[in-house]
Input
Amino acid sequence: MPVYVFVDNNAASVGALIAIACDKTFMRPGSSIGAATFVIQNAERMHDKYQSYMRTTMRATAEAHGKDTIVNGNDTTYQWKRNPLIAEAMVDNRTVIPNIIDSGKTLTFTA
Output
């Protein structure tokens, strides 16, 4: 049974993980998704042990959706249904994705 999520306002942290786990994600204009870094009460990043766990959980959840097979003439390519690198960048500010995010920033998207 397909599972859909609607982001009415904000899907940060574990909300981003839940959204990535669903089959389809819909977002209200003005809403955002991402920023899944573990922090303590004063907004300070927690030790890398926790970041590593969350980074891997986000990546594995995205990978679990698998890939689409795209056939164009004689060329066959495979494209992630959920890009694991994007999921990882929501946790790890060292992740670089050309034309999306530079190092030193944690990824958050708007609708």
Helices lie at 14-21, 48-63, 84-89.
